[in-house]
Amino acid sequence: MNKIILILFLITAYCANAQIGWGDRIKTPREKFAVQKIGDAEIALKLIRTNHTVSFGYKQGPKEGFTITTANNKTRIEGNDETGLLYGCLEYAAQLKKLKAYPKKLNISDAPEMVLRGQCIGLQKSSYLPGRNVYEYPYTPEIFPWFYNKKLWLQVLDSMVDNRMNSLYLWNGHPFASLVKLKDYPYAVEVDDATFKKNEEIYRFITSEADKRGIWVIQMFYNIIVSKPFAEYHNIKTQERERHIVPVIADYTQKSIAAFVEKYPNVGLMVCLGEAMEGVGNDDIEWFTKTIIPGVQDGLKALGKTEEPPIVLRAHDTDAPAVMKAALPIYKNLYTEAKFNGEALTYARPRGSWAALHQTLSKLGSVQIENVHILANLEPFRYGSPNFIQQSVIGMHEVMGGNGLHLYPQASYWDWPYSADSVAVGKRLLQIERDWIWYKAWSRYAWKAKRNREDEIKYWSKLLADKFGCSEADGRKILTAYEESGEIAPKLLRRFGITDGNRQTLTLGMLMTQLINPYRYGLFTLLYDAEAPEGEMIIDYVDKEMKGLEHKGETPAQIVKEVNNHAYLAYEAVKEVSKNIRSNKDEFERLKNDMLCYKGLAYHFGNKVKAAILTLKYKYSGSSKDLDTAYALLHNSLDYYKHNRLLPLRQQHANGSTQNTNAWRGWHLQTLEGNAAGF
Question: What span, in angstroms and rounded, lies between the C-alpha atoms of 360 and 382?
Fold first, then answer.
């Protein structure tokens, strides 16, 4: 009873003092949410604001920036805008938790470097629905049950605001037929009335709760795709890459966008002109300037508004510079987005033509957003190297000219919200829980990239120590594991891979023929020419070695040595602290297991690459000893993959990633075994 009285007293004290210095000016949902965060901290810490006053206000300054000053038992929190005020309140609440008391003196000013800092969630599946094509997934409880889980959405949005993310991308092929009804095309709706009402409710819930937290929701869609009922009514296909613009489809799409903007005026749009529109000349420019933008403008006119909501143009499979050149004269609030490292994570400072596209887009006068896309080489294990991520964000600024982040999940994109881990019968880990360090690291450096390395080591070591209930010295060792293992997959793919696309999941291994003759498999040369530092493929390395020519840049032999060392250090680091873990022990064991998997992966590739080098040397030497040694190395490689290293450990991730289905994994293992037997 006394506890209840205390809590009520604290709440009353908070309510009485929350508006000191501002009075009834706290009106908007975001302002109320911001001030509430301070009150929540005061209640949790049992702080009563009797001799300490807090006031709030606004001032001029960089977008989303804030200033906190404390002196003589008075704190003033000023935001440069509403989101800045929110971030200032969050920082002040963090200071209360750190000090466990009101501060005596504070002087903090901060603002983010990147304009947009966001993560994406796919309302997409890894397999086609019956009677449908790629990207065609209506919003229904049967297809996406998690989409209607308000508790989950609050957890996601709270994690985003904690990380100071300000944008949430929802990916879908054609979302409009699940969210709006059109007077001229009533038959186009893809869901029944009951589901449509659920969609309206949950979409408004998501967008309103996001807005409280300073998060801009952005709905992505592909072109040209129409709803299945619309296609059936007009006896056409839902999508056709070679199809030119058809008037009825353009009219339907323009009116869909207009209705969406009118209904959800605070939601942005992201359009991918490629994929579903390809090889049709200037149709992408026409579609963007004469269908999509007019649709947005029609929606604004219906609302009686003139302020343009942002539109993000995805550069994938389209001539984005040409599209932007045509679009900017008629619509100003445009952003561009392009993949940072293809569909993988390989290198912090891309170069060549890949970097040139980003640089061109960044100079158009709009904001260029860097997309960390599907991470095919990181599936399905934990990845969270703050150092690699920090260097990547610095590269986004310095090399690519980017000033925005669009972050994909670290793994299991197609299986959101769940990770690949199966932790108990019927229970699965959420991605935002398992991969917390992934989201936190990208967000931290998107806010400010060039932070002092020693300070960062201390910061992450303490976070990891707090998470696992160990000393900061042991937290430093866990950080070592993350950072050493964080070099393995990027180095392996950029030096031995065939493509940066999600068609090659690195943990499946590679065939010997893929290593010794990648050109046979349609080698994506930009992986070596742009998404990696200068270096040599195995085939070129052996040719130079046997001809006595000078090597240049990264070499296969060098990378094998490095990744083996990274793997050894990563696993030894977590093994050393195993007995000192006091919190989240199960999760630590899963992390330790992933470090062992990385060790198996590194040693598997190390042995196989050495075998490939000797196999290619045989062409020059004619010595059977080269083949005999290669044969032994190849079997060692298979042993690391199959028997006591990688495969049994990976099977503990029973659900796998989409690219790592059991059937595919089994086929690939048989192929690897056949590869060795046939050698």
Answer: 34
What is the H or E stretch that residue 647 is in?
A: helix 646-650
What ranges in 372-511 are assigned the alpha helix state H?
386-395, 431-434, 436-447, 453-468, 472-485, 488-496
610 contacts: CB under 8 Å, gap ≥ 6: 560, 630, 633
**pTM for the model:** 0.93
Dihedral sign computed on CA atoms, order 149, 150, 155, 159: positive
If you search the block for the tokens 């999941």, which residue do you land on? Answer: 505
| 107 phi, psi to nearest 5 deg | -150, 90
Partnered with residue 511 across adjacent β-strands are: none
Q: What is the CA radius of gyration of the chain?
A: 27
| Cα separation, 428 vs 425, whole angstroms | 8
- Helix, strand, or coil here: 476? helix
- 200-208, long-range: CB < 8 A, 24+ apart: 202/147, 202/148, 202/150, 202/153, 203/179, 203/264, 204/264, 205/150, 205/153, 206/153, 206/157, 207/264, 207/266, 207/267, 208/29
Q: What is the distance, to the nearest Å, from the Cα of residue 323 to the centroid of all Cα atoms in its chain?
A: 26
- Given a contact cutoff of 8 angstroms between Cβ atoms, the answer to whether 192 and 139 are in contact is no
- The torsion angles phi and psi of 524, rounded to 5 degrees, stand at -90, 95
Question: What H or E segment, with its residue span, contains residue 89?
Answer: helix 82-99
What does the chain come to in residues?
Answer: 679
What does 190-213 look like in DSSP terms, one character per residue?
-S-HHHHHHHHHHHHHHHHHHHHT
Largest CA distance in the chain: 88
Cis peptide before 321 (omega within 30 of 0): no
Which structure tokens are listed for 437?
Answer: 């360090």
Contact 256, 177 (CB under 8 A): yes
- Residues 311-349: pLDDT tens digits? 999 999 899 999 999 999 999 999 999 999 999 999 999
Could you give the residue ranges of the DSSP H alpha helices within 244-396? 247-263, 283-287, 293-303, 320-327, 352-362, 386-395
Whether the pLDDT of residue 462 is over 50: the answer is: yes
pLDDT at 556: 98
Tell me the one-letter amino acid at 93.
Answer: A
How far from 301 is each of 176, 289, 304, 308, CA to CA, in Å? 19, 17, 5, 11
Q: Give the integer Cα–Cα distance in Å for 454 and 621.
A: 50
Please name the amino acid found at residue 462: K
Mean pLDDT of 522-530: 95
Residue 65 to residue 82: CA distance in whole angstroms: 9
Closest-CA residue to 51 (of 26, 77, 30, 70): 70
